[in-house]
Amino acid sequence: MSRAPKSLFRYSGNKSRLTRFLEEPPKGCRRLVEPFLGSGGYTLTYGLPGLGCDRDGRVTALWRWLQECDPRDLYDLDAWWRENRNRNPMPNVAEVRERFGEGASLYFKINVCSAMVGQWSSETGYPQHDFPLQKTLEALESARRVEVFEGDWRDIAPRLKEGDCVLFDPPYIGTHGNYKEEGGFSPDGISSEILSWEVPVIFTYGDGAAEIFPEFDWEIATVRRVPNLRSGGSVERREWAAYIRFPRSETVFDFFRANS
Known about the structure:
Helix content is 33%, strand content 17%. The chain has 260 residues and is α/β, with parallel strands linked by helices. It folds into two domains: 15-56 and 138-258, Vaccinia Virus protein VP39 (Rossmann fold), CATH 3.40.50; 64-135. It has a seven-stranded mixed beta sheet.
């Protein structure tokens, strides 16, 4: 299987960067499942049929638009942005929506609005950002094999079937995003739910994984430096992975445990 990381659009998660450090789907996998879909980095990298849900309706609406759009629409939007991004006043979401439609305005917003791309926090384009046009075009064929729906991660369970493999990459505990009314994303019920699934699961998390989810055997997937948004500079962050019901040799387990 190909391991060149792919994604459909920029997003604030890190699955596209993390994918290269994770195990490939097991032999016999017929569908990849992502309960926190985002830009679908893991599923799109391998080109298998997929199932994904996201609690953010903007994410699922953007997926559906990209799955159905004519690539020429993306070229037209990209050409317009290159011509107008240094204009005063700078282009904004409302202008793109009026000119190109709702789907294009979501693609515009997630990719080039806000100081850091991959967020929904701004309505105005930032001229230093380019569209990830080529990456999007390369991912379109695979994206059309992914069934997408809006919902909570728990809504995945009734849809799981033999031959599935799940990439479980939740927000960090306390992340508000779509969980404001609940006081932030909570770990409650995650471990018991995952352990009830009868399919292989790759569970990924950042620092604190073993303390928050002690039920699983964690190993370091990679160590990277990330921007420190509060105080500037960067900080070192470990990315962890746990492989549950995953067919791996004891040699692989022993190597990672010895080097973690």
